[in-house]
Amino acid sequence: MLLNGTWHWMEGNHGPRLAPTIHPDATKVGGGTTEITNAPVVGEDSVAEGTWYASRKQRDGSTAMPVSTTTRWRPGPSYYSNAY
Predict the structure, then answer these.
(1) Is residue 11 within 8 Å of 45, Cβ to Cβ?
(2) How many CB atoms lie within 10 A of CB 26?
(3) Strand partners of residue 36
(4) In this structure, are residues 71 and 65 in contact, taking their beta carbons and an 8 Å threshold?
(5) Of 52, 26, 36, which is closest to residue 3 (Cα–Cα)?
(6) pLDDT confidence bin for 70, thresholds 50/70/90
(7) How high is the pLDDT of residue 63?
(8) 65, pLDDT greater than 70
(9) Mapped to the 3 state alphabet, what secondary structure does 33-69 carry?
(10) Among the four 16, 48, 62, 68, which has the fewest Cβ within 10 Å?
């Protein structure tokens, strides 16, 4: 499933609630998700910003969990958790 323009996916349009619904649903049918986005504005807590922070954490080795369809997006300092 393609998630397009996730820098616009913010609390005001329920993007942070939609993203954690899409990821496990795509996994249930044997699929995955891909995000296409412009650079997020830091501090807006968009889905794209959460993905960016999670990818930095993975790159820096501060998390063993890969950024994948099994992760759940959450706003705030801890963007990914083992919720699923």
Answers:
(1) yes
(2) 16
(3) 4
(4) yes
(5) 36
(6) very low
(7) 63
(8) no
(9) CEEECCCCCCCCCCHHHHHHHHHHHHHCCCCCCCCCC
(10) 62
- Cβ(63)–Cβ(53) under 8 Å? no
Whether the CB-CB separation of 9 and 48 falls below 8 Å is answered with: yes
The beta-carbon contacts of 68-72 under 8 Å, at least 24 apart in sequence, are 68/32, 69/23, 69/24, 69/26, 69/27, 69/31, 69/32, 69/33, 70/23, 70/24, 70/27, 71/23, 72/20, 72/23, 72/24
CA dihedral (57, 61, 62, 64) in degrees, to 10, reads 100
Instruction: Look up the pTM and report it.
Output: 0.67
Which residues form the domain of 16?
Answer: 2-81
